[in-house]
Amino acid sequence: MASNSSSPELSPLDFSEDLVPVREAKAAGETRLDFSRLLSPPLILHEDLKEGCGGQLWPAGVLLARFLLHRLDTLKGKTILELGAGGGLTGLALVSALSRSGYSLPSPLLVTDLEILLPLQEQNIALNQLAPEYIQSASLPWGSPLPTSLPQEYRRPDVILAADCVYFEPAFPLLMETLKDLIGDERGGEREQGGTETVCWFCLKKRRKADMRFVTALKKTFTVREVEVEKEGEEEKNVHL
User: Fold this and answer.
1) What is the Cα–Cα distance from 127 to 87, expressed in whole angstroms?
2) For residue 158, what are the CA distances in angstroms to 37, 201, 207?
3) Is the separation of the CB atoms in 31 and 60 below 8 Å?
4) Residue 6 pLDDT class (50, 70, 90 cuts)
5) DSSP element (H, E) containing 47
6) pLDDT tier at 28, thresholds 50, 70, 90
């Protein structure tokens, strides 16, 4: 597993087609999603690829949002952090539904990604008129120590959302380090005694063998259980939760 001192600096924009499957680029614009009529009015998501592939929606984010929209009661009273949120699709959908249902959260749902994607997240928060007591955005680069600016309640959150984070293979060890920081290394005995268990809803689309090798590494570090979930359309065919 790479360390901060030995790993080369990685840019989310600096990768070859050999490492990442090519997907047809989308023009910047707004997409409305109701998640199979689970959200009314629908979520408005501005998509823009100028800062990288995180600027558009991906099938794992849609599936994870739809899955949890059926289970909002499990999120009541939970501190929630989303990793690699891109434009914020999953977190935005859940907060939209929670706020309309009258459910409260102890802290705003925190959508995170690289600094360059925060303006897009904040644009989407504003587009959906979501109050800061429900959702906020913050920079959280993988593989580095958790930033000192990250409030204590998010350093061991109740729930972590991670959708389509398994995409850029050189970032896999960096993502693993951040998951260990946020959850604790269960297999290595690093979880705080008596601490609240963190649930990570990890949703990915299997694209190549390296993705499944990463899942194997997760199973060696954390307690992992695959969840059966209804899939819609060809895009979700190889999505796993």
Assistant:
1) 12
2) 28, 11, 29
3) no
4) very low
5) strand 43-47
6) confident
Pairing of strands 109-113, 135-139: parallel
77-87 pLDDT, tens digit per residue, is 999 999 999 99
Place of tokens 């935005």: 92
Structure tokens at 124: 């989407």
Q: Distance between CA atoms of 175 and 182, rounded to whole angstroms? A: 11
User: How many whole angstroms separate alpha carbon 172 and alpha carbon 204?
Assistant: 13
Q: Are 194 and 230 in contact (CB under 8 A)?
A: no
Other Cβ atoms within 10 Å of 238 Cβ, number? 14
- pTM for this prediction: 0.86
In sign, the C-alpha dihedral spanning 121, 125, 126, 132 is negative
**Residue 181 predicted with pLDDT over 70:** yes
**pLDDT for res 24:** 58
> What is the rounded CA–CA span in Å between residue 80 and residue 107?
8
> What gap in Å lies between CA 53 and CA 6, rounded to an integer?
26
Q: Are residues 203 and 169 in contact, defined by beta-carbon separation less than 8 angstroms?
A: no
The 3-state DSSP class for residue 118 equals: helix
Beta carbons within 8 Å of 13's beta carbon, 6+ residues apart: 51, 52
